[in-house]
């Protein structure tokens, strides 16, 4: 399944990256790259947690950063 990482700039100049289709995948950073890297590394952990809790079925995922 394909997931997109969405990056936005906050008013305090931080960048917030999220994967809208994966609840709880939200990360911030000083740059867009830093925020998206954090979100990309968090996504598999959230998916693993959902699998362990029986909330999701196993699937391959592909993350793409949306500019």
In short:
With 67 residues, this protein is α+β, with helices and mostly antiparallel strands. Helices cover 31% and strands 31% of the residues. It has a single domain (2-66), classed as 2-Layer Sandwich (TTHA1013/TTHA0281-like), CATH 3.30.2390.
In which order are the strands of the major sheet placed?
A: 3-2-1-4
Mean pLDDT: 87
What is the CATH C-level name?
A: Alpha Beta
Main sheet attributes: strand count, strand direction, barrel closure: 4 strands, mixed
Determine the number of helices (DSSP H or I, runs of at least 4 residues).
1
Which overall shape is indicated by the principal axes computed on the Cα atoms? Answer: elongated
Low-confidence stretches: none
Structural class computed from helices and strand pairing: alpha+beta
Strand content: 25-35%
Alpha-carbon distance between the two ends: 19 Å
Instruction: Estimate nothing, just give the exact number of structural domains.
Output: 1
CATH topology: TTHA1013/TTHA0281-like
